[in-house]
TrEMBL record:
It comes from the Eukaryota. The keyword Nucleotide-binding applies. This is Kinase-like domain-containing protein. The keyword Nucleotide-binding applies. The lineage of its organism: Eukaryota, Fungi, Dikarya, Basidiomycota, Agaricomycotina. Residues 54-331 form the Protein kinase domain. SMART domains: S_TKc. Keywords: ATP-binding, Kinase, Nucleotide-binding, Transferase. GO terms for molecular function: ATP binding; protein serine/threonine kinase activity.
Length: 331
């Protein structure tokens, strides 16, 4: 009897396997499938073609891209609160037709550049459902008219849940922190204030970014936004520290705090302050000696933010207050 039962179970399992193997499978959109896709940027869009069509998205590199609608010709009235009738950035035509990199992979994510149904450039990121990134972005994202003016999180258009993953659809501004270059003292202090306001807001909300460097800061029309929260952590709002173990992702040199390579647990608030200070210091150094000596108090503030000892650095709020005093005296 038991031999017959085992044989029936085995035959049933074989039947299920053969059906799975032989029958055509519909286009799915989940993390394991997409991470296994060959890295061919000319054809990678095929792996999620069904998903893109259902959500009226046109990935760069697909045939439909060439005939996609042009973006709205109205720039956003408020950069962080774009309306459907507005583009995300100020331009009069669609860009990206010659983009060399239209999709790529991170350690636990898949990325695309695409157009939404209005012809606007969007950045799509796929991450696991248990990822902190989308949860933190959802927490920080605010599309209400009374959005906090210090909230410098990139505009999120939509979160789309799939069976195994979360799709983050966000505005694509298209520039890193230093493109275009900061060309004057007024611009330099104005953008430095934005970075410190954004960092202060995140830390007030209990979020440490964890991976601040120029490529994770997007610039458009004299507005800066933080992007890529893959290494972010969240602690209770109002916390003075964000103690956590060091992960595999960290800012590249010279933007990573020294404690990230010397200790196993760090205060990521202090590490963020170092990274933002180093971003601003690198920008100032690239501007030349005359710019560095023109505002010695600003250079002194950045030096304090980047001291090796995390306990000796100012908090983001303290650094912002120091910058406001400099701006009040200089401008």
């Amino acid at each position: 009897m038991w031999q017959t039962m085992l044989l029936s179970i085995a035959l049933g399992g074989l039947t299920v396997f053969l059906l799975w193997y032989l029958l055509p499978r519909s286009s799915s959109f989940n993390l394991p499938d997409l991470l296994d896709t060959p890295e061919d940027p000319r054809r990678l869009w095929l792996s999620a073609d069904g998903f893109f069509r259902r959500h009226k998205l046109v990935p760069f590199g697909s045939p439909a891209y060439q005939s996609a609608v042009d973006p709205p010709r109205v720039p956003p009235h408020r950069s962080f609160l774009p309306r459907e009738t507005e583009d995300f950035v100020h331009r009069l035509w669609r860009f990206g037709t010659s983009a060399k990199l239209t999709s790529w992979s991170g350690p636990n994510s898949r990325h695309w550049l695409a157009l939404d149904r209005f012809g606007r450039n969007v950045y799509i990121k796929l991450c696991p459902l248990d990822s902190n990134e989308w949860k933190i972005l959802e927490y920080l994202s605010d599309t209400t008219p009374d959005r906090h003016p210090w909230n410098r999180t990139i505009p999120i258009i939509e979160f789309i849940r799939t069976p195994l993953s979360m799709v983050i659809l966000q505005a694509c501004w298209g520039s890193s922190a230093f493109s275009p270059p900061w060309d004057s003292l007024r611009t330099r202090l104005y953008l430095a204030r934005q970075l410190l306001q954004g960092l202060t807001y995140m830390h007030m909300k209990g979020v440490a970014h964890g991976d601040v460097h120029p490529e994770n800061i997007s610039l458009f029309d004299f507005q800066l936004a933080f992007i890529d929260f893959e290494n972010s952590i969240r602690v209770p709002a109002g916390s003075l520290q964000a103690l956590a173990p060091v992960g595999d992702i960290r800012p590249p040199e010279p933007f990573g705090a020294p404690e990230l390579v010397s200790t196993s647990h760090v205060d990521f608030f202090a590490a963020d302050v170092f990274s933002v200070g180093q971003v601003l210091l690198s920008e100032l150094q690239s501007a030349g000696t005359s710019q560095q000596t023109s505002i010695p108090r600003y250079l002194g503030l950045l030096t304090k933010m980047t001291v090796p000892s995390p306990t000796q650095r100012p908090s983001a709020a303290e650094a912002l207050r120091g910058l406001e005093e400099i701006i009040g005296d200089c401008l």
